[in-house]
């Protein structure tokens, strides 16, 4: 699969028009997977791999309290 170049320096005009016209609601995920503060890091890592996502919302009940990203996991493992 070929990557679509998305930058303002050398992207074709049609790509730039798409970027400026698209709304978050058009590209966001609505079938969310969430975790809690008690979810083990290894389980979050597994979920990210299986769902092919780079971040996971952390919730307390139905309230968003944070987001863990791949970078967060890498930093935690470095420590």
What does this structure look like?
The protein has 79 residues and is α+β, with helices and mostly antiparallel strands. It has helices at 13-21, 24-27, 41-51, 70-78, and strands at residues 55-60, 63-69. Strands 1-2 form a two-stranded antiparallel ribbon. A hairpin with a 2-residue loop joins strand 1 (55-60) and strand 2. The chain is elongated. The chain starts with 12 loop residues before the first helix and ends with a helix. The mean pLDDT is 84.
Can you give keywords for this protein?
79 residues; 2 strands; single chain; alpha+beta
Write the layout of secondary structure elements.
Layout: H1 13-21, H2 24-27, H3 41-51, E1 55-60, E2 63-69, H4 70-78
Antiparallel strand pairs: 1-2
